[in-house]
Amino acid sequence: MFTVIGLMSGTSLDGVDAAVIRTDGERIEGFGPDLHLPYPAALRQHARKILDEATTLPPDSPALKAVEHEITRYHVDAARQLQALVPDVDLIGFHGQTILHAPARHHTWQIGDAQYLSRATGLAVIHDFRSADVAAGGEGAPLVPWFHAALLNGASGPAAVLNIGGVANITLVDTDGTIHACDTGPGNALLDDWALRHTGTACDVDGKLAAMGTVNQTLLEDLLADPYFARPAPKSLDRQTFAAALDRVSDCTPADGAATLAVFSVEAIRRTPLPARPAHWYVCGGGRHNPVLMRAMRTALGVPVEPVERLGWNGDALEAQCFGFLAARSVRGLPISAPTITGGPDNLSGGRLTCAGLMPIPAWMRNTGAA
Ligand SMILES: Nc1ncnc2c1ncn2[C@@H]1O[C@H](COP(=O)(O)OP(=O)(O)OP(=O)(O)O)[C@@H](O)[C@H]1O
Ligand SMILES: CC(=O)N[C@H]1[C@@H]2OC[C@@H](O2)[C@@H](O)[C@@H]1O[C@H](C)C(=O)O
Description:
Nucleotidyltransferase, domain 5; ATP-binding; Anhydro_N_Ac-Mur_kinase; kinase; 12 strands; EC 2.7.1.170; kinase activity
């Protein structure tokens, strides 16, 4: 068993989620403390600019390097806070910040300085989780399904775990244990951008704006006509894939636009082609705090839709815990992707190990022969 700190900064660009997990990458012995370190507004803006320009940015761009350093600094801070609470951590799983995801061009780009994180914490860091699968022809996302399946621990299916982050993704564990997954469509990202544009707040807090609006059905069907939604899984998205939807709803009132974008996310979930209809949906990610999204999903799906807390899970820390879990899988050479999850050719391991400078070889590395 390893004690691992998992670090995740998602597509919402809202900050770092950090969590401690005890796991061997197969079984989960337990969880330690978790925390969220929000990015200040200026860093969000800078990171957003990098993300918007990522298709043309050279990797050595000074602006990119500055944002990468600043983002890593928050990860260092988060990891150190957890180290102060849990002194015997073995390693770190560090997702980094996705600024571009283009698997069709064999490219996925997470920024973050693993050397700096390793040096500052004295710990070995597993990072770059997605590129091995993308290089092999897979989508490189979503990667959370192995973790969802381990948490479900053979519970009778078919059950769906839905993450509503900036992008939304689903894991379906079928009755025979097969894990199916894909990104379903937008999650909160469009709503966040719309809310920022019209209210100056980073998100539509508690869905208050959307709740006052009426869905524009013509626009909604127009948005859902995108071929992505009919494509079978596995499939994955960049945060900006549906950014043009904001222009398409630009003539709506702020409230109607928010209502239409909220139902866009929900209908994209409902229309996702799945091999089995889930009898139960468990929801994690920030979108489960939005009552408009949750209400619309209950109406659209017609089966129980509940936050993952119903299963005793922590829906805000789940992705951070996941990258701790995947780090443990990585050091053991276990798969973190699979053909039914990311569409790659095989069950593949992934992640890269970075140890800063002359750090003493950790005990776990001697035991696993990974050194
Ligand atoms: N009270 C709330 N009301 C409405 N929306 C909320 C609320 N709380 C959180 N959110 C939404 O949740 C988002 C953050 O969700 P989360 O942290 O799961 O995203 P992420 O991990 O960055 O994304 P991804 O999973 O795509 O990487 C916020 O940007 C916001 O849109
Ligand atoms: C490329 C990338 O960072 N994708 C994220 C994003 O955020 C949600 C969805 O799109 C998911 O595919 C993935 O994150 C989770 C943690 C995953 O890999 O499972």
